[in-house]
Design brief:
This protein is an alpha+beta fold. It is built from 14 helices and 19 strands.
Amino acid sequence: MNGSVASSAPYADRRARLLAHMEPGSVAVLATSLEVARNADSDYPYRHDSSFYYLTGFAEPEAVLVLAGARGEQPARAILFCREKNPEREIWDGLRHGPDAARTAFGFDAAYPVDALDEQMATLLADVPALYCKLGRDEGLDTRLRHWLNSVRRQGRAGIKAPPVLRDIVPLIDEMRVVKDAGEQATMLRAGEISGAAHVRAMRAGRPGIFEYALEAELLYEFRRNGAQFPAYTPIVASGANSCILHYNSNDRQIRDGELVLIDAGCELDGYASDITRTWPVNGRFSTAQRTLYELVLAAQQAALDAVRPGQTFHSVHDAAVRVLAQGMLDTGLLGRDRHGSVDDVIANKAFTPFYMHGTSHWLGMDVHDTGAYRLTDEPDKPSRPLQEGMVLTIEPGIYVRPAEGVPEAYWNIGIRIEDDVVVAPGGHTMLTGAAPKTVAEIETLMREG
């Protein structure tokens, strides 16, 4: 994920757009993630801060981006502070670009050693109208921020003023990240292809008696062998009753003949996530009850997909899925008509929630649950946000049936979720995760041939 001269243009464009949203002449400061110790002499695998990487393409730790708006004859500048070259540490830890190479490779106007940050900020913040940062979200940077402001204030007798206004930069970057450009969409398509291949591999490996963790291993192998750097989140491999636990991830149970396996897993490729869920019978054949509920969820997903197009609201996608699921719950007897009435009654009273308790979609991008508002927060009644071209979201209806009085026993311990990733496109959407089969016929054929 190291950038190059050829790939620095999108990051420079994002920095310019961010500066255009800021108060003229102001300064923004954004640090990447810290390295985190796992235990003695061992760190967790390092992963950059998403927003920092979005603006820089720079994946090394101990780095800070400063954006200084144009003031007078001084043009706007993008300045990187990063680790210096260190041949001894590079023997142990790997390549460091160092300021000079980073400035050239990533298209910055200037770059300095990170140890020079405190000294430089005392100058960069002098007489600027506002300072943008992650207010209250980075304790270490907040402490340094107070030090920088005090350093500028000590120059007051010379007529130099500290920024009188502090502003949160997070909402500005979050909104920029909601709409993906062509390069981002291409990366996410490739991530979806890799993840789809991993789900196919897991289906082919499935058989009664296999352990959940063995299927997880198949997923991780396929991710890594195709160049994905990480799983985008801890994989969920849930069999039997575990499939009714939404965020189950122990993945340690032996799977029995006749049970379903729900796998929610996606890779991260070059900083971008995929997110796929497939549910299938470990023995390769859906039972009658499993097929009934599976085809209900599949129909709900199709209704939601049909609602994805520019101008439709985000929440209309969920509403479309809920209507199909609610009708199916009445048809299957999961909800009694004598008690719950019509499908409109089920929706109005939220009687479907014991079997479907989560939303149908979320934004997807550099984070699995990506940034951006779901409602128009500047409107008095905060209506649902309209979809627009370039937005990427998941479509993931499900149904989860736990043993309970009045619930037909044939459906007990069946949990089903079907999830795909789509880009809002002219007139509709583009599927990013079509490599993973999902119809009953496709799944049964694949497992029979596997």
